[in-house]
Design goal:
- The chain is of the alpha+beta class and 107 residues long.
- The protein contains three helices and four strands; from the N terminus they run E-H-E-E-E-H-H.
- The protein is elongated.
């Protein structure tokens, strides 16, 4: 998984980079088919904004964004939203229907 972190009007320091990377590891525990993640961190006066776009191996793109009191809070909320979308996407990929053999034996 490739992670690209960009800061608009904020310098992406090593602690911020490490924090984002550690938080995104949680997503790869739930879903291992992540190709890359593009994260944009923005600070405008008192508004801290984090957004991320995630691409999966199935050519699906998931996007989440969040605002917070500080940059770390915005990152937390954004990763929570992205994690929820990934779990929902993984659930859609799973076939929950019983196979034909189970249907025939039940009749």
């Amino acid at each position: 998984m490739q992670i690209q972190i960009v800061g608009k009007q904020v310098e992406v320091t090593q602690p911020i980079h490490d924090y984002v990377t550690a938080k995104l590891e949680r997503i790869t525990r739930h879903f291992e088919h992540v190709i890359d993640v593009h994260v944009v961190l923005t600070v405008e006066k008192l508004k801290h904004h984090a957004e991320a776009t995630l691409r999966t191996a199935q050519q699906r793109s998931l996007h989440a964004e969040a605002d917070g009191q500080d940059l770390y809070a915005a990152i937390d909320v954004m990763v929570d939203k992205l994690d929820q979308q990934v779990r929902k996407h993984k659930e859609k990929l799973t076939d929950h229907h019983r196979s034909e053999s189970h249907k025939r034996s039940a009749i």
